[in-house]
Fold these 2 entries.
Entry 1:
Amino acid sequence: MQMYINYFNRHVRLKDENPSIGIVLCKMKNKALVELTLPENANIYASQYQLYLPSKEELRQKLMEWAKENNKGVKDGG
Amino acid sequence: MGSKREIIPQHNVHTLITELRELIALARNTVARRVNTIQIVTNFEIGRRIVEHEQQGEKRAEYGKTLLKRLSAELTREFGRGFSEDNLSNMRKFYLTYRERSEISGTLSRKLLSSAKSQAPSGQLQKSETLSHKFTLSWSHYVFLLGVKKPEERSFYEIEATGQNWSIRELKRQFNTGLYERLSLSRDKEKVKELSEKGQIIEKPGDMIKYPYVLEFLGLDEKTAYSENDLETAIIDKLEHFLLELGKGFLFEARQKRFTFDADHFYVDLVFYNRLLRCYVLIDLKIGKLTHQDLG
């Protein structure tokens, strides 16, 4: 993805446009791997897709876990 | 113009038709919005009266139920549909949920209240149209929003539905996919607060990312095998849905966009452009495990 981004930034993007963004949309994302591979200021994001509607409860649960983590001062950059 | 009859140039007629079309569309739109406005304000007032009546009378829950039943019977007999017990109950809830909005315009609504008995109801409705500026969606949108329990979340969906002109169906879908939660998951506390106050503000790349992306509309089955190409084709077939799922400001440019470097061809799965961020957004699809080569 980094190579695609570089190509677009150097050969496609116009002067007044912002740097290109890459999304790797995968079935299963590995947070540790993403953190290890990408520099902090990378314009590349890894996110997951799912083929079914999430249950509200599922999302609420995740949100609560995340809030706890966030309160401890650990930020989730993705 | 001369006294002789002139042949009107064709393009002028087209301009005229365009103008008239716009005029008529605007008029219809305005009428529809006025009807909506009046409906919202009336329902708010009905809700208010019911609550106030309850406050003066008995506090028992059964009384409330009997009251709604009685009102529903009377109003339906006289005005027809639209006054079921459920709907009256919604109006009551609507008032209770959004009463602060009438209190902000403070003295006016209080004046309206105190003069309620002496004044003709129609005059009062006209005045309370200042209230209507505070409601931007249709009644059915609000009925749906009443079911959203958390105030911050309710406010977020109201702002987004207004800003992006969501139909009631689209609003329901966004809610059912948990848009609010998904956006919250990628934000810190301050930013989550901002969601409920201003909606989704897209200023930097990270603002548009969702965790996860919900692609239920593709109709692909988790259990059956599909290839990356299947996934991509399904997305292209449902591009309109996919764009809505991506979020604000996205335009589609190409699939399998090829570029050549050192005599090798490379293909980007999907190329989008985001108008708000003013940049290209490249999407790579991975049905298997994410590897570091996918990122680097």
Entry 2:
Amino acid sequence: MDVTLSVQRHNPDANPATWWQDYTVTVPDHATVLDALLAVRDEQDESLTVRCSCRSHICGSCVMRIDGRSALGCKTKVAEALRRGGAEGRVRVQPAGNMAVLKDLAVDLEGFFGKVRAVQPWLQPVGPEPEREYLVPNEAMLRVRDAMACILCGACVSACNSLEVDDRFLGPAALAKAWRFTEDPRDGHDRDRLEFLSSVPGGIWDCTHCFACVEVCPKDVKPMERIIELRRRAMDAGFTDNNGARHSQAFRDTIAHSGWLDETKVAVRSVRGPDELLDWVGVGARSFLRGKVPLRHKAIPGALRVTAIVSAAERTAAGSARGGAAAGAAPHGAPGHGPGSGGGSGA
Amino acid sequence: MDVAYYPGCVAKGGAPELYRSVKLILEPLGIRPTELFDAACTGAGVLTERNPLLADALNGRTFAMAERKGMPIMTICSTCTGTMLACNARLQDGGYRARVNELLAPEKYEYQGGTAIKHLLWMLVEDVGLERVGGLVRRPLEGLRVAPFYGCYLVRPSALVDEGRPDRERYLERLIETLGGQAVEYEGARKCCGFPVITMNRTNGLKMTGRNIADAKEHGADIMVTPCPLCHLNLDGQQEEAARALGVPLGVPILHLPQLIGLAFGFTPSQLGMSHHLVRPGAVLARYAQAV
């Protein structure tokens, strides 16, 4: 099979500009994009820089963007990329996003690993060490195991929409890692971790809920869902002096009251105070003048029923949080699954 | 076809023009809506984050209403669609559904798990058919370069939303061309509008908005179209602020999906409620009206 790879190249040491270079190679039908790139390097252009090691989606070295989608080069078949890409016999390859290019497809991972280190990705038990190994319930570790599958490849970071506008965001990989330790029954520092994650600039409330990380993760870690659970746990633990928690509370209150969203009330109650509200005066006034701010918010007919459901669901959730790991939660395995109520202190 | 119509909160709040324009286009399309006046907010993912059981109960209640009528739910909001699909997936677990149904029992609702959820955009392609849509065009959008903007929830996670139809992520492009317009290809089409963080990190939210609009503009867009009113609140409502946050001029009108369809069907901008927009589409549409 012949394939043309359009590779975005860059050698910042020599030239600040990037350029596109086309290579046409013959590869077997089962070849991966990484195979094709290595064939280019071996047969045509040894100056092409590609980072890789295991070629079996274990090491996580070869993350790149293939037709705009963040992926491992070794896990993406050329045939599949051609089928998806649409452009005749051509696959577009770019370095991973949201990271500085060192050369061609090799990006600088210092910042990435710095953020992973910032969440203290190691067990911090409290209390006396057990005489032998720590004993933990199997179900608790099964949950954690899904996030432990992360190979730190950076595909999620490459695709993250929040990181595109704010380099301070800890990002999906580091936050999924943080979740893994808050969930681990052997770790005794849940509260410290949750406090840090909900108050540090670039913490859990800066995730924009775009699902890009969930979509591209080659190990199905679902980082965004971990971030969502961290938010829930942080709120449950009382870390609510932030706009994220204020927004969540306002949202819940307006639904409990009228059955649907009173947008104006949610907006006003979601910000810290009068100083932040000033930022909204312009857009508020213009929206009002264009008839986009309803003067009256009328409850749905069954609002009282909705209020009763809210109370009942909250009682159940509170009960199951006391009851132990994930009891009362939504079924696992389904998208957006249940609350992380597990994780007591260690040993 | 008959549908249980779920307009969502924004169409009945901050985007009255959306609600109005949907009403105009459904009849020619042969879609007969029965509005679910008593349905609650989906929770937009925010309630799921806070308390999944609560979000699933409120959505399960809505699904049960539609199930009783024997109709699929039609949404007009990407966020409502994605939130409902995720809830519906969880409610396929019988044991869990029984627990949710306990919360619905006082109202005598019981969800059996059989309600289909479809965004208007999906119905146009999969149920009405683009051929029929094309047949209704009175004023083709000739010469109009339209940038599609999907809204995250309508395209991700694909394992949840494509339901075996991976080409759903290109429906807007196909629809724009059916209406006689030219679909603009640009990277931002499936990115986040920044709305979910607008109250938490206003600068970030505005930058996301601005970058996507600037991207569409650089690729030649006259206007943008979105099937998500939450995206519209940012792309249109906060465009001036986004331009300031980014330090670039923008000025790209943003249409709701049914407004774009309505234009091509021959309705006027004022019938379609465009006087509510913060970025006035007047100049762009005048140019197009002259060309037609």
